TrEMBL record:
InterPro entries from the UniProt entry: ExbB/TolQ_transport, MotA_ExbB_proton_chnl
Protein name per UniProt: Biopolymer transport protein ExbB
Keyword NADP applies: no
Family per similarity comment: Belongs to the exbB/tolQ family.
Main location: membrane
Lineage: Bacteria, Pseudomonadati, Aquificota, Aquificia, Desulfurobacteriales
GO cellular component: plasma membrane
Membrane topology reported for the UniProt record: Multi-pass membrane protein
Amino acid sequence: MDLEFFHRLVFYTLYFLFFLSTAVFIERLLYFFFTFPAEKKLIKKELEVTKDEGAELLYVNFSSKLERGKGILMFSITASPLLGLLGTVLGIIDSFKTMAEKGVSDISAVSKGIAFALEATALGIAVALFSLLYYHTLNGLVKRGKTEIKRFILQNLKGRGEGD
C-alpha cells in the first residue's frame, strides 16, 4: 500500500479547506460592507408597512442572512487539525514501514515520513487558526448587524406606539 496517495489527499483536502474558508470570509466581508448597508435601508422601508407581528419575522429573516457561512468556518476549524493529525499518523506509519524495509541505518528514508508528518500537522493547525480568525471576525460583524436590526425594529415600534 502506497501512502503517498493518502499524504497528497490529506494535503489537498487541507488546501481546499483553506481556500473554502478564505472564500467564505471574503464573500461575507463583501456582504457586510456593500450589501448589508443597502439591506438596512430595505429593512427601514419594510418596517413602515409591516405590522408589529411581522417585525419579528423580519428580524429572523435578515438575521439568518447575517449568519451564512459560519457553519463552513466551524467545520474547517474542527476538521483541519484532525486532518493534520491523520497526516501525522500516515507519516509516522510511512517512517516505520521504511525502517522495517531498509533498517534504521537509512536515516534519509526515515526522515521523509517524519517530514510528511510534521508538515501535515503544521498545515492542519495553520488552516484551523486562519479559519478561527475568520470566524471570530465574522461573528463580531454578525453581532453588530443583529444589534442594528434590533435597534431599527425597536425604534420603529416605539415610534408607532407614540403616534397612537
